[in-house]
Design brief:
The protein is α+β, with helices and mostly antiparallel strands and 406 residues long. It is built from 16 helices and 12 strands. Helix content is 52%, strand content 10%. The longest helix is centred in the middle third of the chain and has 36 residues.
Length: 406
Amino acid sequence: MTTTDPIVATFTISSFEAAKEVYRQKDLRQALYDEGEVVMGDVLVNLHGDEHRKRRRVENRIFRRETFDHYERDLFPQVTEVTVAPYVAAGGVDLVQLGHELMLNLAALTAGIDRPEGTAEETRRLYDYMQWFIKGATLAHSTEDKPALAARIQRALEEWDEEFLKPSVARRKTALAALEAGEITENDLPRDILTTLLRGNDELALPAFALRREIAFFLLASAHTSATAFVRSIDHILGWLADHPEDAERVTGDPMFVQRCVHETVRLNPSSPVGMRWALAPVSLKSGTEIPQGSKVVIDLHAVNRDPEVFGPDAAEFNPYRELPAGVGPFGLSFAAGIHVCIGQDLAAGVVPRADTAPEEHLFGLVPGAVRYMFNQGVRRDPADPPQRDAQTQRPYWGTYPALLG
């Protein structure tokens, strides 16, 4: 389908195969975050061509299986337990708040933002900054005064830089100098994105403002997208168990099943309901569609991930037992495809298992791990306080999701 306005022609892609083809076109550039430049300008997901390849090549040095194993087996379980424990003791929590708090703790580790005080107040300040960054990334969908909001987000970035980023950079530069002097070993360095970017600075030559945005982006992307998937997955599983109580033991005892539930949730609820691209040159699709230079291409992920030709006649329903054609990911195209496929996909959602995958060797991902932990704490809806949608954005986010624990 093509729609035309007085400025540009807009092509909307709603089939799975066409969307895959669009994502792999080198002449289509990211357009989703144009209005959110205050946070998203110059970050990895917005780069194109050689700039993107250089940045990704450096950052891929941290996004490796051995690093993910270290996070999932050594770091994340303790962080999850400590974060959730007060709410288990209280008997309840708002899952939206918990999701952002929990995933912020995990994201700070991966991004490289230190909290030397180790206090709840310090974490709250970092959480408040992250909320501003989320507003920046999703500025196009905001219902607030956008210029005023962008100005406030810029101030938050600068304040966060002074309080958190610059001290974290200084500590890593000291560690890198100690490594060069032979005073410490590689194993003594932090395993995070900030350290990786500082080590790769000769290749990238990132100015301070670009480093600021990149780390802020990884902080918000890791925390926000994972937090929304966390809440939505619990919601879908609770709905599934209401109709399939026989699966209750699988939710607490079978991590492969929980991972399938998270993948199915992500398919139905991509972090952004659409993808967008600008045509840098004329593009011809296999369908015969001709996209002129300067046109906008909108990938309707809601439709793409529910394409009945790929996901079956019940494509719009949640079904963790869904059988898929060969070569189709269980999460659809929610992580995109091609050179811009989400760099943190395996960290967040784990690796798609094969039929012969051994659970003890499998990477499940931080979201499935956190979701399974919550069901082992007896998470359930609060019948006296139903969840509410977020009215401050056009995106389909939960605003509040009260839950009982224990």
